[in-house]
Write a structure and sequence with these properties.
Largest sheet: none
Order of helices and strands: HHHHHHH
Distance between the termini: 16 Å
Oligomer: single chain
Helix content: over 70%
Strand content: under 5%
Number of strands: 0
Radius of gyration: 16 Å
Number of domains: 1
Low-confidence stretches: 135-142
Length: 142
């Protein structure tokens, strides 16, 4: 996997884990009552989709078990349909779809996040220098 793709998959993992954390101890009704929670979960799902859209076509083609297109389409629906986001769909995505894809994403990078970030930063420093760009930092979404 190219270093840039690895960083983007790590962004997906980070956002998926954030969505899971946001929902710990919460119920479906909380999305209706807590606008900040809804916004946070929606944004995490958007980040997952945006990062997925930036994974190279070669990496996506090489990992057909990951539903790349569905992930990207969900992001597009949330962004373009911002005025009629259905909390039921957000809940189902965050509690069923995202947890289902998380192990697939972790398998792609083959490690836990801290070690993966260290490897990705090192790879991106090398690639960035070769391309005349700076390092792609893990806390900056591409």
């Amino acid at each position: 996997m190219r270093p840039e793709d690895r960083v983007r998959v790590l962004h997906m993992i980070e956002a998926a884990e954030s969505a899971a954390q946001f929902l710990v101890g919460r119920s479906r009704d909380d999305l209706d009552r807590d606008e900040m929670l809804l916004f946070a979960v929606v944004h995490a799902i958007e980040i997952i989709g945006e990062a997925a859209s930036r994974v190279s076509p070669e990496a996506r083609a090489g990992t057909p078990e990951v539903p790349w297109n569905a992930i990207r389409l969900m992001r597009n629906r949330l962004i373009r349909g911002y005025a009629d986001i259905d909390p039921e769909v957000v809940w189902a995505t965050a509690t069923a779809e995202v947890p289902a894809v998380l192990p697939l994403l972790r398998a792609l990078v083959g490690t836990d996040a801290p070690e993966a970030w260290a490897a990705a930063i090192t790879d991106n420093e090398r690639v960035g220098k070769a391309l005349g760009r700076g390092t792609i930092r893990p806390n900056v979404y591409l």
